[in-house]
Amino acid sequence: MKIVIHGGFFSESSQSDETKLKKQSALKDIIKKGYDFLQEHSALETVVYTTTLLEDCPLFNAGIGSQIQGDGKIRMSAAIMNGLDCKFSGVINIEDVKNPVLVAEKLLGEEDRVLSGHGAKKYAASQGFKAFSTETKERREEFNLKLKSSKTGTVGCVALDKNGNLSVATSTGGKGFEIPGRVSDSATIAGNYANKDCAISCTGVGEDIINAAIACKIVTRVTDGQSIETAFDKTFTELNEIDGFAGAIGLDSKGNMYWKESHPKIVFAAYDGTNTFMFQ
Ligand code: ASP
Questions:
Q1: Is the CB of 60 within 6 Å of ligand 1?
Q2: Fewest CB within a 10 Å sphere: which of 78, 140, 186, 275?
Q3: 143 HSE (CA, 13 A, CB side)
């Protein structure tokens, strides 16, 4: 059993040591909760649960604390993928829900599994999700001051359960100040992908992640026989060739964990039951 989480790519770039420490301590706490949960739950249930904890923490750019789009509204995106049956579901630019990843989870049982905008919001309401504002004072102040550099991080989780199944979840408030309706990579197969061999969650500039098709490419390379390390290296070489800005975490079915970033900015944690590995 293994679990790896991340708290985003931009997290460390423009923030004080105090904020960094707070984020690292939040990740340490959340990964332990996720690991405990994994003891009795599937990888899929665990990535959803752990991502709700990350979404509920205002330090990260997902759920509560999400960035604000150019028209002053928060629109969030989240996706999950079950490696066991290769099913992906997600919401794109959903408004007014506390945990977008839980709406993505609900959609896994539907024939139509990726919903956007108004449709996603209506679907969430029809499933009993209460209207909830994820806006925080800090994000509104940054927005009002046009503080574009003060990015916080998208979140993601990959897990391998006791039956050897992999899953992934990724959730984001986007990049902030974007053209309303801009689609993040997080609810696409470029940012969030898993099969029975490998699970990958990305963070960084969504457009770059989509250009390099990072998550889907790494997973496919592992399935085709490359080690997770080689698959990451090859994919990030291609990302660097187009000057892309991204990071990713991953797990393969043998429990090998791997991560990489094109610039040293991602903040993430891994826990193996005894040791917590913290990065950045
Ligand atoms: N990938 C996210 C996006 O472009 C942002 C991030 O990871 O920080 O929407």
A1: no
A2: 275
A3: 20
